[in-house]
UniProtKB/TrEMBL annotation:
PANTHER family: PROTEIN MALY (PTHR43525). It comes from Treponema bryantii. Its cofactor is pyridoxal 5'-phosphate. It is an enzyme of class 4 (lyase). GO terms for molecular function: cysteine-S-conjugate beta-lyase activity; pyridoxal phosphate binding. This is cysteine-S-conjugate beta-lyase. Transmembrane segments: none annotated. Pfam families: Aminotran_1_2 (PF00155).
Amino acid sequence: MSYNFNSVIDRHGTNCIKTDLAVIRGKPADVLSLWVADMDFPTSPAILEALHNKVDHGIFGYSCLDDDFFSALKNWMQTEHDFSPERRELVTTPGVVFGISCAIKAFTQEGDSVIIQTPVYYPFKNMIELNNRKLVTSSLYEKEGKYYINFEDFEKKIIENNVKLFILCSPHNPVSRVWTREELQKLSDICLRNNVIVFSDEIHNDFVYGPNKHIVFSNLSPEAAENSIVSMSVSKTFNLAGLQFSTNFIKNPVLRNKFRIEKDKTGYDEPSLMGLTAALAAYKNGKPWLLDLHKHLKENIDFVRNFLAEKLPSVRLIEPEGTFLLWLDFSKLGLSDSEIDDIIVNKAKVWLDRGTMFGPEGEYYQRINVATPRPVLEEALNRIEGAFKEIKHV
Ligand SMILES: Cc1ncc(COP(=O)(O)O)c(C=O)c1O
């Protein structure tokens, strides 16, 4: 590998929420943080160089998109995802969650129902509830270590609640599914026949393993494209979340206009200069770094799988098809969800995301972020093993 993903960089005191919020959020000061979905590596050198150049230029005034940016973005989308958006379809936001909030306001009224598939990334629920919309959930179900959609339940909930908007997580965080074309097509068909607009959060689209392939929702069919907002970002792919820049693709001009109005109403206007600069460099020159990162992540996933098999066989790994977030099942330990969480946080001193944050279906689960150097991952797993062994629960 040309890039090194195994040197440990201390993130304490760098305004990093993963480390610097630990004590504020009631965790031990020396906790190891493998929760929020950013990475413990510096971004690609090509991106760093572009950012350094911008800093050297020294002028940080209002910024705008140009042809160079759009052609780099389009080239990336075509090469990586067989996706060819037109420039007019693009609306930038300072993040994907910001886009979700705009979509909720643009396509629903207060009191309207919005559906999500739990367990799922928790800000989906928060955005729906904070905007005074009705939360409707359709649970994914797990069978032999893999999660599936209950299509009947999904449609029934839509009809019963007169749902107006569906927030899809594709690939899915936290159960690490990469939805197949058939699954997405069924979801699209249900939404089309019930007049439900789809917001497809595809932020994890550049992390897909094995034979799985990410399908861009609007690539399913012209009808799906007309009925959806597809949201993507370099923020997960290149570890740029702090630069606050994401892209939404909206083919349907009516939906696009409504979305834009809600974005404009927030007062947010031009994209962040550093976010834009980083995204341009990522699309143009980031690929070699990303390929090496994929190798590192796959090795980390193998490491977790082997570690559990050897040392913590009662903890089950849900085999990931995508994302750098692993969904671990602790239910076989015979402990309550609170006991499991308490042991991990206070005895092992490891901060993961507790499964119930993603919905009640996450009881007995924890989500671990493996986008970290191997020594950190190893230390975290050793601590967890030690803590459960100490109380003789493995
Ligand atoms: C599915 C999903 N959507 C959105 C985000 C956050 O996106 P942003 O920081 O661009 O709002 C995350 C981060 O973990 C995520 O997992």
